[in-house]
Amino acid sequence: MFGLTRRNQDISTYNPWREMEEFEKAFFGRPFGSFFDTPAFSQFRTDVTDEGDHYLLEADLPGFEKKDITLDIQNDTLIVRAERKSKVEEKDKKDKVIRMERSYGSYQRSFDISGVDADKIKAKYVDGVLRLTLPKLEQRLPEGRRLEIE
Asked: Which of 11, 43, 111, 150 is most buried by its number of CB atoms within 10 A?
């Protein structure tokens, strides 16, 4: 008989302080909840624009030094990597640091460059923004010719 009766297991008791407790847990336990753990935040932001004869790729990489950024081309893929290393030693963390929210780690994005002349790519890094000029491949139209009829 108990097998035929539906029991509601989802009933919870009313707790007027639940929202405040959840807020406190999110604020003090993990600042801003799990916002920083999302894949969207772990990747750097980029803009790609078509400038006519070339594409312009701008990537926001604030806080990185130029030596920490690498650009690799493999087949028709451009790979942009940036790595930030921690400058704080373990002993300093115990004595001086009260809270550390700056992220350290490596970031990577890949871009298809099949329509780009990879030998002429130029890169600049100024004020936390990486700018890549990606010249388009020259479109070669097939040459016209006359076919002979047999």
From this structure: 111
Which of 82, 91, 4, 76 lies closest to 46 in space, CA to CA?
82
Mean pLDDT of 93-102: 65
Could you give phi then psi for residue 139, rounded to 5 degrees? -80, 120
Distance CA 30, CA 36 (A): 9
- pLDDT over 80 at 26, yes or no: no
3-state secondary structure 7-38: CCCCCCCCCCCHHHHHHHHHHHHCCCCCHHHC
Q: Are 128 and 84 in contact (CB under 8 A)?
A: no
pLDDT value of position 2: 39
DSSP state letters, 54-94: EEEEEEE-TT--GGGEEEEEETTEEEEEEEE-----HHHHH
Share of the chain above pLDDT 90, in %: 38
User: Cβ neighbours of residue 93 under 8 Å, at least 6 residues apart?
Assistant: 100
Band (113; pLDDT cuts 50, 70, 90):
very high
